[in-house]
Amino acid sequence: MQLMSGRALLRLLTGAMLILFVVPITLGMAGTVLPAFGYMPTLAPGNGFLDVVSDSRFPRAVLLTLFTGLSATALVLLLSIIALVSLHRSRLWSWLSAAMPPLLAVPHAAIAVGLVFLISPSGAVVRMISPSLTGWSKPPDAWIVPDALGLSLILGLVIKEVPFLILAAAAQLSHLNVDASLKIGRTLGYSPARCWSRLILPRLYPRIRLVLLIIMGFNLTVVDMALLLGPSTPPTFSVFLMSLVNDPGSRAAASAGALLLCVLVAACFASLRLLEGLVSRVARARRRSGARGKGSRLFRILGKVVVVLMVVLSIASMLVLLIWSVTRRWRFPDMYPSTWSLHAWISEGADLLSPALSTLSISLSVAVLAMLATVVWLELERLGHAPKLDGLWYVPLLVPQVSLIFGWQAMAYWAGADGLWITVVYSHWLFSMPYVVLILAVAWREFDPYWNHAAHTLGAGYFRVLFRVRLPLMIKPLCQAAAVAIAVSVAQYLPTLLLGAGRHQTLAIELVTSFGGGDRRAIAALAVLQSLLPLCAFVLALAYPYHRSMKQARNNARAVPAGGAFE
Fold first, then answer.
1. 246 φ, ψ to 5°?
2. What pLDDT, on the 0 to 100 scale, is given for residue 232?
3. Which among 42, 272, 477, 488 has most CB atoms closer than 10 A?
4. Which DSSP symbol is given to 197?
């Protein structure tokens, strides 16, 4: 009887987990579909599809979204492949691997603001070469940032997403035995680049396809970076939809546009699959030809330069934010500020404290809930009480965020839950948990069962084994997953804006809304503070396992007698 009740409890827990994750996604899509087709006339009157398609901004917004999103995705994939082929196992690869995690932790909005301060006509790059090389005593008007073509947005997306794809690819290389493949290929007379293209990349790409789809979906639907770096006449499609949802009379058009954005993203995913098939056929034909080819030293050098330049650009964007945040006066075209001061931090301290505490409370709550939910589900899966549903967890990352959140906003308004703290936390959890699953699933499933068997043999029960053996041995991926959950929550702009009803002013909200006309020093301080929270989380995620292992080593050393273990 006790066993049956235990099984019933596990089934109940499995069902509750699925309900907590699946129901919001279903309701979110329903809350978008119903207004689009006129089934909620009180909230969204009018013919949504006709209104959005007849808007003069619609065609250009779609074309701009396709151009920026697909161009950024192609460049991210190309630069990641160049980094792997040109830098793998080199000294630069170690440096690159160390630089990638901190860059990945920096929120998108902070990178975007730093990039504007860096490459704009009055930015740090122009100041470094003026007036000595350019003769400019005033900011030039030859270009503007953001630009009409969206090139600034493409650059911002690329420098933010390249570290994500490189780290995802690097995590898979250990499963492919790259060194052995390179040795075999080199023995057969192939150049290193051909070894990669013929032996390694065909096996690597299927393992990172999901990550590439997530990147493509994000690039096509991003809002905060598009607001900061994208053009406004016309804006990208997601920003265009945001202007509609803010107009009460255009709610139906916003919902219809969100569905059209879903169709657009799905069409891009399908096109990528078709392109994969074409590339696969060409690759098979090239492999059958047996052509060895010659290695191009120039290509490898150029690849190293491009990848290093992207990393340097990311780091420089953050450094210029830090400089602006402690600047009192920095006239153009001075290379350095003439007066340094903490005035921005001191004068804005009270205004920064409230959004910082709000961001911290939300992100820590999200991290705890995401970690708890993921560990519970993976344990249920390991014990055979839950199926393996990896595809389900990644749905919020593949479906356009706008499409889900428009529906959540409608449902929250209908249920009277809009503006609640728990509503904001719940929405952040839905976007953070997929990343936690992505990090923990492989480590959890590949955990050596010997440790469990040994502990059970010594008389330890299930919970004692879980908390004293399994979790301590997996402390490193657990800390990394928690840091990623915090970083994802800190960067959330759209869920907080639409579901928070203006009651929860996080750093992401403050940064985007104050960017248009605020003081550069105050904006820089906001961006630096927003970046510090996830960076601190990543530092702790690296430091705590190291400290724990060192402490354990010291304890083990004390436990061994001075004369030796076998004396």
1. -75, -10
2. 84
3. 488
4. I
Report residue 51 as tokens: 């209104």
Domain for residue 450, yes or no? yes
Q: Which helix (H) or strand (E) holds 395?
A: helix 395-398
Instruction: Read off the tokens for 361.
Output: 């409370």
CB 515 within 8 A of CB 88: no
Decide if pLDDT at 319 tops 90. yes
Q: Is residue 439 part of a domain?
A: yes
Contact by Cβ (8 Å): 506, 109: no
CATH number at residue 495: 1.10.3720.10
Which range among 41-50, 89-98, 162-171 has the greatest average pLDDT? 162-171
For 525, residues 6+ apart whose C-beta sits below 8 A from its C-beta are 325, 344, 345, 348, 352
Q: What is the pLDDT of residues 67-99, one digit of tens each?
A: 999 999 999 999 999 888 888 878 888 888 777
- Mean pLDDT lowest among 5-19, 20-34, 549-563: 549-563
- Specify which residues 329 forms β-bridges with: 339
Q: Which two tokens stand for residue 140?
A: 């030039």
**Predicted model pTM:** 0.90
Q: Do the domain assignments include residue 509?
A: yes
Residue 456: per-residue pLDDT: 81
> Domain tally for the chain?
1
Residues 6+ apart with CB under 8 A from 147: 231
* Inter-residue contact 524 to 117 (CB < 8 Å): yes
User: What radius of gyration do the chain's Cα atoms show?
Assistant: 26
Q: How far apart are CA 104 and CA 490, in angstroms?
A: 13
Output the six-digit token pair for 1: 């009887």
